[in-house]
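Write out the 3D structure for:
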Amino acid sequence: MDLKERNFLVMQSDFGYVDGAVAAMVGVALSIDSELQIYDCTHEIEPYNTWEASYRLFQTIGYWKSGTVFLSVVDPGVGTARRSVVAKTKDGTYVVTPDNGTLTHISEYIGIDELRLIDENRYLSSDAKDSYTFCGRDLYANVAAKLASGIICFEDVGELLSSDTIMKLTLGDVVKEEGSVKGHIDILDVRFGSIWTNITREDFMELEINYGEYVEIVIRNANTLIYSNRAIVGRSFADVNIGEQIVYVNSLLRMAVAINQGNFARAYSIGTGLQWTIELKKI
């Protein structure tokens, strides 16, 4: 097989591992190039949650080398007229995905250099002509593997599109006032129950609160007050005792709230989304 330089292929989906969906996509990719190095981002995204798909790409993609191909299949509109695209980021990585909001965070925080429409007439499996519900296997895995293996180049994918036409989800605003900053709970650090906000470290530092000092936390779900308390601002969880709450800077340089060796989200029934607001106040 005459290949250009191979690149890594990284997959994410909402398929889970309870059936053979992920293995089917891997099988397609390896049938194209048996020497591809395939890795998982996650396959545990909440079903149909394109917001989470977008965020997990943002959380991960910047740590992979230029040329890496990401395959993201969270596709509640599978089989419809929604577009299938490949995006090339400013950092030179690629994302093969339905255009359904999955590219929101990358577009906003990393930048998209070029966008191409996948030519389905060329790349859709002939076996899929009477089945419309598994584009991850029948289209996206095919394109992603050929791109990662060097069988095709980015220009071969299909028509060049304007990156301004990407479907974007609504990102919450950060509001700064005298002595406080207010944002949204974007996502959870799922396994540990920490809440991750859209308030950046720079936004928070404008409050001039030092490590070891207390900050007031107010969390609301729409207009309903869910949580109001004070917590220490710390560098790491060890700055508080086990079971105590802490405000810290997470791995994406956003402000987060946790319980040391506990689950903050579960303890206070905290959710995510634009209706979930958090305010951090200087005391």
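The helical segments are 21-32, 50-60, 104-109, 120-123, 135-149, 201-205, 264-268.
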